[in-house]
Amino acid sequence: MINSKDINDLHPKVKALAELFIAKCAEQGVKVIITSTYRDAESQNALYAQGRTATGKIVTNAKAGQSFHNYKVAFDFAPVIGGQIPWNDTKLFNKCGEIAESVGLEWVGRWQSFKELAHCQFTSGLTLADFKAGKMI
Ligand SMILES: [Zn+2]
């Protein structure tokens, strides 16, 4: 079961964008950590089970193959202040999201539905169906 936080587990293009994103945040005085990168099918299903057939809160609507994390083209980030992640500081997440967009990432904090302030991806216009069919950026 793989549930990685390692930037090296991202597709090389996405890794490069993530590095640029982290550097740009640092330039603006915001330390950012990567909290999730690649998840394999087993790990995605375990996450989906959380809050449904397993204990915990529901954290995803995606089963195996339904998350861009499963294709190494998405990552989650969090800003860090004084060693803590300010989960409720929407303004700071928004600032990071805008920086992510400025380097060419798609920031899901922008979406109206399934809005996720911590999630970035780079799909090159490909859909989940494309990735499922074996296409890659
Ligand atoms: Zn995510």
Structural description of this entry:
By secondary structure, this protein is of the alpha+beta class. It has a single domain, classed as Muramoyl-pentapeptide Carboxypeptidase, domain 2. The chain contains four helices and four strands. Strands 1-2-4-3 form a four-stranded antiparallel beta sheet, covered by helices on one side. Helix 1 packs across helix 3. The protein is globular. Bound molecules: zinc ion. Zinc ion binds next to strand 2.
Report a brief summary of the structure.
With 137 residues, this protein is of the alpha+beta class.
CATH topology (fold) name: Muramoyl-pentapeptide Carboxypeptidase, domain 2
Number of strands: 4
This entry's quaternary arrangement is: single chain
CATH architecture: 2-Layer Sandwich
Q: How many helical elements?
A: 4
> Shape, please?
globular
Biggest pleated-sheet summary: 4 strands, antiparallel
State the distance separating the first and last CA atoms.
Answer: 24 Å
Q: List ligands, each type once.
A: zinc ion
Name of the CATH class? Alpha Beta
- The percentage of residues in β strands lies in 5-15%
Order of neighbouring strands in the sheet with most strands: 1-2-4-3
Structural class: alpha+beta
User: How many domain units?
Assistant: 1
- Give the helix proportion (percent range): 25-40%
What is the averaged pLDDT score? Answer: 96
Uncertain stretches of 5 or more adjacent residues: none
| Radius of gyration computed on alpha carbons | 15 Å
